[in-house]
Amino acid sequence: MSGYFKELVDGTNSLVAGLRVTIKYLFKPVVTMQYPHVSVRMTPRFRGHIDLVADDNGESLCIVCGMCQKACPSDCITVAGEKPEGAKKKMLTEYRLDFTKCSLCGLCVESCKPGAITFSKDFNLAGLTKEEFIFDLKQRLEERKR
Amino acid sequence: MNPEVLRLIGYVVAIIAFVALNAAMLVWMERKVAGHIQLRIGPKEVGPFGLLQSFADGIKLMTKQLIVPEGADVPLFKIAPMLVMIPAVMCFVTIPFSETLAARNINVGLLLIFAIASVNILALLLGGWASNNKYAVISAARAVSQNVAYEIPMLITAITVVMFTGTMNLNEIVMQQGGGFWNWNIMPLTKNFGMLLVMPVSFVIFFICSMAETNRAPFDLGEAESELVAGFHTEYSGMGFGLFFLGEYANVFIGCSLATILFLGGWQCPFGLFPGIHWFLLKVYFLIFVVMWVRWTYPRTTIYGLLNLSWKFLIPISLFNLVLTGALIKVFSR
Amino acid sequence: MNHLASDQQKETFVLNMGPQHPATHGVLRVKLVLDGEYIVEADPVLGYIHRMQEKMGENRTWAQFMPNTGRLDYLSALSYNHGYACAVERAAGIEVPERAEFIRVMTVELNRISSHLLWFGAYLLDLGGFTPLLYAFDDREQILDLLESVTGSRLTYCYFRFGGVYNDIDDNFLTGVSAFVARLRSRLPMYHTLVTKNIILMKRLKDIGVVSADMCRRYGATGPVARGSGLNYDVRKNEPYSIYSRFNFDVPVYPEGDSMARYMVRMDEIEQSLRIIEQAIAGLPEGPVMAEKAPKIIKPAKGDYYQAVEAARGSFGVRLVSDGSNTAYRLKLRSPSFSNLSLFAEASQGMLVADAIAFMGSLDLVIPEIDR
Q1: CB 3.0 to 4.6 Å from B210: which of B229, B255, C19, C353, for a disulfide?
Q2: ipTM score over 0.85, yes or no
């Protein structure tokens, strides 16, 4: 019999305590950010898709060694270059990233000796076709140069 | 035309409009209250402060196709949502919004409301049965046993108020509570000291039962049974579901307005100054806020926890309360 | 309603808790044979998200497999990174510098807390209480922001490397973590008041899904499931790896074996992880975060190696069979949720369906790691 009343009293107390918690939070300010109206700043180490790094002249630092292509677990990267007449090192002709397969693991960035690729802060990616996600990073570098 | 008939038609139109607007407003209020308890803003895009969100949702529901499942009992299937709305609207007949604003001041108003509201259970059962879905039938049967179990303490606590006030006419009950909050039935300090022991308990039990009757959380097994088994209104789409939804909010309003009328003084002012419809609406919406506050705080009970609460706790306590009320009325009456 | 009448004669019917379901966290199909409300037989059907991770382990080089470990159990991805990294380091004989070990422990424990907070929120969502989910996610968001500032990812981390970690941490991170520890300590009483002591929740969890210690041993259940049944087994204490032997923390064990015990084990583990993090911040040494002698191309010697770590769900084991080349010959992943799920078939007999949902939530299953 005493268990009955104890359960009743304890139960009621716990229910009232719960209500006190929620009413306290009702009057606190919201913790959400109204995303489309407010722009979100990414941290410096945020991993967006990779982008080519430009040197002082706006050219890429890539020496077309192919280490990133070898390091990638998902075969996303296609690098091609050619050595023009009289130049000391290869020039980059094509750098394609298939972002539909990229898992943002960072093995390519880690393996690049001259530091020619880095993570971008691009997160607002939306597209209608699959081809829009095969990024031509050399073209993006040239667009940034302008 | 007979002015009486015109008056009644006016009341019917006004009540239906009020029920619809009320449902829209309650949906908005629910989402805002839920949002702020959960530290987020509720709807905000459609209209200022998201006020037009419910209308957008209503338009969406109205434009959806009304699907009748194969093998369902078509007349029963279509009647069930109507059977939820009709009693809800009919109960407004005797509710006094203010001293002069009541469609009909029936002498057995309280009894009438309980009688009409019981038809709601029939609608749940019909909705579940007619859906041709075994899980809908199971959950409809559960909802019926839940409603029956919680009708009993609700009626018993209403009887304590009737014993105390001596009348079932809702407007009379409110008029007896005039003068100030010390005259309200929940703590009638001037009329009968003994009632201070029993009336608050009656109020709490009545409030809990009205939450269970209207299938609000934490007693919402009928709807949120979709953990595994589908709820009784699962096969309804578009406005069929919309009517169940509106009926639920109308029932919430009726339950809370009954609680205000019986215990909190209806349209009377707490200090006896300017009684009127504004006090009634204020009190009812405050109680509705408490109902929503409870919903967003607790998890759901199981069906056995629910029935145990009613049969093992609420019914014995309310019966004891009833006997005590009778004794105290005799002892402390003036 | 003819089919209902015929079901009456058979007395049981088959209910499919299908791959799409709000209460099974992931694509899990459970074939339930019900007698009215009671479960007669429960048969989990797996494989809806089988992604051949173990086969990928054979086709990728050792370093290239690291991102896969983050996708196995995405909620505590750093523990899985840790398990794989420790296994390969043990095989190849690479030493990890001290600062990297401390960073590893700190981030793994933060990840454990975030996994338990998500479990807490999702479990209560199944039981019908929507609000604690959002409070838990408020705290979890702070952890995710902290870890994002260090690793760059919010959920599927690929942060550990053989010989250390990818990036170093800075002072902002350390002040952020200290502030977070203080804040979560002050919030835990609120969770207990709002949820744990609530009578509705207690009635739903007490004496539901009782699993005896003997049953845990038979099915190989580990982690909070075993500790909730009285088995005092934590890989960090029983088979210490990394630098866990240097930290002072308790292992919560509750003997009852019901869902409430498993719930309390996880809530207490959050508190213990906070203790470990505090000690790690206090003892963090200076130094490199990557071993200088770590070879670029890893080629472990031929052999059979096994490493177990304590993930948020139990003991995660990695077994490597190396044949000296730059890919594994065989990579076997021992997933804790698989063994925990195997309890369900036996323990759920005679249970009500609603109670079975509460039981499954207390097992804390993540289906992608079951199917790998």
Answers
A1: B255
A2: yes
